[in-house]
Write a structure and sequence with these properties.
The chain is 26% helix and 42% strand. By secondary structure, it is α+β, with helices and mostly antiparallel strands.
């Protein structure tokens, strides 16, 4: 952290005074924190604590992205997504989680894994951090879906997936971010 970044952090930082657990769940915890903001006022912060997650942009040798269609109860829609899943523990290696999720949801294994970095899905109220990977050198295998999963798997040329993101056809943020980052990574690699 640079000196300027440290000063900015100190001038904007909120200090927790109290924290109350509202609900402890299998995937996340909901909390209500009381904080002191930089101007000295007291404020409440509703937040979600999450174990973290991974998402994968699997690209075939033919330049197609392996995608999924599944129903999402919270928004009552079937949407297109890249393979993804939560970490099983806070200290689980994200690469191992990504390899597991790709295998379970699509049946594919990848010979090459490229770390595309992290992003926070909704930092105003959640600490969920998602690690993105580009997976190449794919070989097909058997899926191992969880008992509560119904997923349709298909492929789409990467350039068509990018166009679908830009047209707003993929409303999921991890899918948009992953596809665009993977496409840019591959563009730079081939430049």
């Amino acid at each position: 952290m640079t000196e300027q970044e440290r000063k900015e952090y100190e001038s904007l930082r909120e200090v927790r005074i109290d924290s109350t657990l509202i609900r402890h769940g299998r995937i996340l915890d909901m909390r209500l924190d009381t904080v002191r903001v930089p101007n000295g006022n007291i404020a409440g912060r509703e937040l979600v604590r999450h174990l973290g997650a991974v998402c994968i942009v699997p690209v075939t040798a033919d330049g197609e992205v392996v995608l999924e269609r599944q129903y999402r109860y919270v928004i009552d829609r079937v949407i297109t997504e890249i393979p993804a899943g939560k970490l099983d523990a806070v200290n689980e290696d994200p690469l191992e989680a990504a390899q597991r999720e790709l295998r379970e949801e699509t049946g594919f294994h990848a010979a090459e894994w490229i770390d595309l970095g992290d992003f926070y899905s909704a930092p105003a109220y959640s600490d969920e951090k998602i690690r993105m990977f580009l997976a190449r050198g794919l070989t097909a295998g058997e899926r191992e879906l969880d008992a509560d999963e119904e997923i349709n798997v298909f492929t789409l040329p990467l350039d068509e997936a990018v166009a679908a993101v830009m047209r707003g056809e993929f409303p999921d943020v991890k899918t948009q971010t992953g596809i665009l980052k993977a496409a840019e990574y591959l563009r730079r690699e081939n430049a």
